[in-house]
Amino acid sequence: MKSQSSRQFISKAFLYSILVIATLLSIFPFYWMFVMATNTNEVINRIPPAILPGKELVANFTKVLNTIDFFGAMWNTFIVASITTIGVLILSSLAGFAFAKLHFKGKNALFVMILVTMIIPPQLGLIPQYIIISKLNWLSDFKAIIVPGLIDAFGIFWMRQYISSNVPDELIEAAKIDGCSIFRVYWNITVPIIIPAFATLAIIKFMYVWNDFLWPLVVLRDEESQTIQVALRGLIDNYVRDNGMILSGTFWATVPLVIIFLLFNRLFISSLTEGAVK
């Protein structure tokens, strides 16, 4: 018994050690970014580099505010990311429900075509999308980012797989026998079950839109409509690079992502627990 308990203790200690090391490695880039955001160029370029935070966080962030419209760009990005994420959740769940539970001709072929689009690099569609957006007079308009981002192949695939494995066909048939329409089956039965899938997809899509740089750089020409990733580019000077200022702006632009992740992660865990109890 003692040998068995000692082996269990050693295995648990090894497992927790691996988890602690993995956690520290994951957190270290954010910590290092914070350290550089609180120091001057002189301290950052010193060898060996500083490993403790400095006293220049407020000064560096003040430089950011004097260089770009930081809060305006953050608000623009939040609006675009929120609307796009909500739209993707609605449309992807509807499409996923149709592919998972409805029967119609060409369903499998259409689903395969959607999956094929996932292997095509998005850069290949840059010129055709730009031509369409310019003809619609959407340049420097949030619609140029929101509308193309509403259809997400991964979101449809994710919802279809989750609904197929977590929503029983018997439950849907029972609802139809009781007189429920297709939309009511989706809204009253499917949606409450797939809340964890909503939370996961929301985290992925929100972070993707928040971090997107290339497409907003192409279509958002006015400074007032810039997203945060495009605005941060204005911190880079061709002659003198203030790394403390750049990393300060990057650090504060990352904070909302951490908050969103923590909020949705808590919802994800509570939703899994609810589903387990039911």
Describe this structure in words.
The protein is mostly helical. The protein has a domain of 168 residues: MetI-like (MetI-like fold, Orthogonal Bundle), CATH 1.10.3720.10. The chain has 14 helices and no strands. α1 runs antiparallel to α14, α4 packs across α8 and α8 runs antiparallel to α11. The relative contact order is 0.14. The C terminus is likely disordered. Keywords: Cell membrane, Membrane, Sugar transport, Transmembrane, Transmembrane helix, Transport. This is Sugar transport system (Permease). Belongs to the binding-protein-dependent transport system permease family. InterPro entries: MetI-like (IPR000515), MetI-like_sf (IPR035906). It is a multi-pass membrane protein.
As a whole number of angstroms, the C-alpha radius of gyration is: 24 Å
- Can you name the CATH architecture of the domain at 68-235? Orthogonal Bundle
Largest sheet: none
Mean pLDDT across all amino acids? 87
**CATH C-level class of the domain at 68-235:** Mainly Alpha
Helix proportion range: over 70%
How far apart, in Å, are the first and last alpha carbons?
A: 38 Å
SS strand fraction: under 5%
General form? flat
H/E element order: HHHHHHHHHHHHHH
List keywords for this structure.
14 helices; 278 residues; MetI-like; membrane; single chain; mainly alpha; MetI-like fold; disordered C terminus
Task: Draw up the topology in text.
Blueprint: H1 2-37, H2 41-44, H3 57-67, H4 70-101, H5 107-116, H6 126-135, H7 143-149, H8 153-166, H9 169-177, H10 182-193, H11 195-211, H12 214-219, H13 228-232, H14 243-277
Helix pairs in contact: 1-14, 3-14, 4-7, 4-8, 4-11, 8-11, 11-14
